[in-house]
Amino acid sequence: MLEAIFAPRSVAVVGASPDPAKLGHRILKNILDAGYSGRIFPIHPRATQILNLPAYPSVEQVPEPIDLAVVVVPAAVTLEVAEACGKRGVRGLVVISAGFKEIGPEGRVLEERLLEITRRYNMRMIGPNCLGVIDTTTRLNASFAALYPHAGQIAFMSQSGALCTAILDWSRVQGIGFSRFVSLGNKADVDEVTLLQAWGCDKVHNRVILAYLEGIGNGDEFVAVARQVTKHIPVIAIKSGATQAGARAASSHTGALAGAEHAYEAAFDQCGVLRARSMQELFDFALAFAYQPLIPGDRLAIVTNAGGPGIIATDAAVHCGLRLAELAPATIAALRAALPSAASVYNPIDIIGDARADRYRVALRAALDDPNVDAVLVLFTPQAGSEPEETARVIVELSAGSPKPVATSFMGAASIGEALRTLNDHKIPNYPFPERAVAALGAMVAQRRWVDRPPGEYVHFDVDRERVRALFARVRSEGRVELGELEARQVIEAYGMRLPRSLLAQSPEEAAEIAAHLGFPVVMKISSPDILHKSDIGGVKLGIRDPDEARDAYELIEYRARKYSREARIWGVLVQEQVRKGREVLVGVSRDPQFGPLIAFGLSGIYVEALKDVAFRLAPVSRQEAAEQVRSIRAFPILRGVRGEPPADIATAEEIILRVAQLVTDFPEIVEMDINPLVVYNQGEGAIVLDARIILRG
Amino acid sequence: MLEAIFAPRSVAVVGASPDPAKLGHRILKNILDAGYSGRIFPIHPRATQILNLPAYPSVEQVPEPIDLAVVVVPAAVTLEVAEACGKRGVRGLVVISAGFKEIGPEGRVLEERLLEITRRYNMRMIGPNCLGVIDTTTRLNASFAALYPHAGQIAFMSQSGALCTAILDWSRVQGIGFSRFVSLGNKADVDEVTLLQAWGCDKVHNRVILAYLEGIGNGDEFVAVARQVTKHIPVIAIKSGATQAGARAASSHTGALAGAEHAYEAAFDQCGVLRARSMQELFDFALAFAYQPLIPGDRLAIVTNAGGPGIIATDAAVHCGLRLAELAPATIAALRAALPSAASVYNPIDIIGDARADRYRVALRAALDDPNVDAVLVLFTPQAGSEPEETARVIVELSAGSPKPVATSFMGAASIGEALRTLNDHKIPNYPFPERAVAALGAMVAQRRWVDRPPGEYVHFDVDRERVRALFARVRSEGRVELGELEARQVIEAYGMRLPRSLLAQSPEEAAEIAAHLGFPVVMKISSPDILHKSDIGGVKLGIRDPDEARDAYELIEYRARKYSREARIWGVLVQEQVRKGREVLVGVSRDPQFGPLIAFGLSGIYVEALKDVAFRLAPVSRQEAAEQVRSIRAFPILRGVRGEPPADIATAEEIILRVAQLVTDFPEIVEMDINPLVVYNQGEGAIVLDARIILRG
User: Fold this and answer.
1) Which residues on chain B are in Cβ contact (under 8 Å) with A245?
2) What global pTM score does this model have?
3) ipTM value for the complex
4) Which of A510, B96, B351, B620: disulfide with A505, CB 3.0–4.6 Å?
């Protein structure tokens, strides 16, 4: 996939220039300098030779096949160029030129026409409005970046070109290498999903994929593709525009529609994309994945020549999802035999300040050999007698071939330059402070959990879809978007969820009869498609205990509804069995413009509303995801049972999430839905939907 | 203060050695190399000259006065040396030698004796078991550190010597300078409090104080001293051993008693110490404070030549307590006039990719001049045509003398080395990624809020202290530590908190009479000093509606109490007015070994118990602290009123916190106390203590 762009046999630079000040010159020179081995054709209206290569007035004139055209001409000319490329059989375009969607409606039209041409000729396109692409595996530098990165196994895509240049600049000094490096630009054709899919097929060159994203075009597709890729290659994303203020900046920047934060959180979570909270973290994590084997578990051993940093790392480990390994007795014995008596042979293994490389050797070997250890963090502080280089070499030697990752924090700088180079050259990820090393190993644990997770089990419930379809059709035919309570009840029922038994009464006498039939006490509620907040108008009465009360309630409710609105259509009063108490939760749905239906789960009631303790998942939801969702609210202990209470019927709560997810997947016209409250009884006793609200697309 | 240690007129090195492999040699050499201008006396049993200085066999033989003695002899010899120093009139000791508290009980005894000697002769001592001290203002390097730091205005103390060496090593390359640099060692005499007090008096040299702490010896004193110092000099601490696992490592490391995390949080919060979450943050924050004026407010302007980093910084700003400044119309007009049309003249000010230094000049000047802006973050990504060095010089020029801090994130490394040097040389704090710059400015906002905060108002309520004293005496005389409910009620009453009216009944008939007197409904509860969890044994009955029910309840409760325990002393049954409902909170007290009484506040009930939504403050508590405490629980909206509810009587809740704080300060023997629930009524209607539990020291 995308070979025409990353591994073309030949490249034309349309807009190549003999003038060193021009981008078109810089790009041609970059292609030459990086050592690309295919044919290169500069295209320029008049020049016959640029940078010692024969130039051509147009792609039509090029005597040989062209795989890739890098386009760096004024925006207005790009259509013509793309057309010519298409005719000439070009298969890939990298459009550097700006002046498209990012400048407003006019540019947007131009971009759409450009895309239409590439589609027509079956070409793939990066950009427009981008810095270009770099592939160190084919030594192609089709960009105007000032620097060419070291070769390495990190693939990086960025929606910000400037960030690309900054990262390149920085990575040169850090000695960090890349396999592919792409500035996505306006993402008219190739976007994050296309790249993810293409890069996900090449585990050999891409050990980790990084993405700087301001928005995601097609959420569904992103989730579907990422879910596959992340099982084999870790994908780390930094999504900016996460805050309100940030989101404003994002839409003025690339016109990206910034998705709701909750939807992104849920999406990344459900497709195994690791989220970096800062640029620093993005690269810290990348280094660990690019350099070391994936951590087999979460048990960390720490080897240190200083107590303080050992404590710092221990603190950090607990915050980052790692556990301190409990060393095996044999390890402790081996350490005790070999280390001075002042050393600590437990974890953190403190080989104390005067440790030379030999002591690091003993401790690191013991830790790596210990079956209770999944990863080792080696801390080094320069002290009198320390041997930084020799220690680095010992680490390189012992970690080679080990299935357990080793990370280091050689603290300091002045006296450890050579050691740092040795570590980096041999792919030992080093971090200037222990917390950063620990955080990177913590990201590995998250990836390990994702990889080990069994494939999602998607249940399909046997439901009465037709009934809902017909019902929605009727609602729409009446020009409504909100379902009345009776209608919502029918939907809930059709999708197999339990409701309190209830019947509609149309007179006080009928209310009394129904109530007697259902059994007292009952609840009575106004039934009208025009009254949404029934309680607010006094349209709900609880605890009705006998036929007389039922008759009175009917009249009172009807009177209040009339008083509230003369025009409201009143269907009657719903008489409902009064259900016994249980733990009340809510299951809600909203629809994210990028990711589709977002299912919310939380406890019901004002406490939790005030605490905003709600967990989200995107539909479709797997069994496991529903289970995690329920467990990820902070108030979960209340469902599990506190103070000796029996656990709630959590399995049923999960099932309701799955049924709701199926419903909103079956009916994309549902834009909003609330089951609130859902009364969950004790384990084994089920749950009952007390109230539901459904709103269709207008 | 501590002049003998940091600014001695003369220094003796006891244990100086002619052998370059020895620490005693290294220290002497360090003192010489750093350029210390006072007299230096090597002390060695036999040598007559070391490093070209005349040596003496003992301090007694030194012909001139000695201010400071650096001691680097075996632990066993230190007592003798200290004694000799004391006699000789030495005023300060830096004891490098190890072999004290850190090695166990034997060492602890030695350390106590050493301290006793220093106290007797009125000497101050750093250490033992430390790396030494460095003062760049007096060019004193009384340490065995391999490197001498750049001079600067950051004072640093560390409980880990190894961390000191690592930081020194690292700071040399980063170009970060220090005023004082102290390895605290075992803190036998001089500890974090002493240093804080000494350094707090020298604003000129110490613009910011950093501390790496594993434990704090005297919490009260720390809070009292820090509260003063932080008003003038920012203090940033990293406290390790914060997690359970970390705390274990800490106590095995220096024998420091790791305090409860909540107590540290509360202490730092109440005395204005900024807490860094990582080593990286510690120095990131320090740089901003050391280099720039304190931020006047929280409104940030961002100037950038790239959209992506601008969005990243915007996101980060919101997370770090900053607001994006709304630029004044004049600023926007000025920017619009001077910048190209593609630029964004709103905040972030995007001067776009081809910006040279002149455009940075326009934008930075406009931002600094804008009255709506409190600080400016300048982002720079190297792009074609960028002028990193010139841009750095523009920033240096414009920020000079401005009362608003300027921070930068020049991203990259390879092409911006010279610019980074210029920025650092001229005290512009630069960070490799925008998020770190923003976090540092966010720390400044926290410091600004602290500095601007009016002095704490400590209320003293008129209470009946004597009554409580007498009561506690009686409880103790009976060999009890837990107060019975009636006793706890008396304490609550004596400290001016409202209780439901209640009286003790000792027969069914009396219960009926009391209930009639209080007015039905009433609550009845067993009264026994031996039954703590009254509800659990069925010893509480609610909603008693008439005299018959009162009589029945009495008998039932008495029967159950007897069944529960034949031996329990039963005082009778408490008959209490049944109070109306309100919002239920808890006010609790526990006693932290380092910081004393820790007051907890949260909502009552299982929801909040499950959510662990509790805020802590150390007593004494000021009015403002109580107000913040109440507002800092996540569930605060419930007290403020949600869904149209009126607000609760928050002022009374605050007052109860203050009264409880006064109570536990007056009576240090209270080790645990719970007011749970405190029923808080609507604003203006007060609050009532429903149940209280008090436990005294055993």
Assistant:
1) 314-315, 317-318, 324
2) 0.90
3) 0.88
4) A510
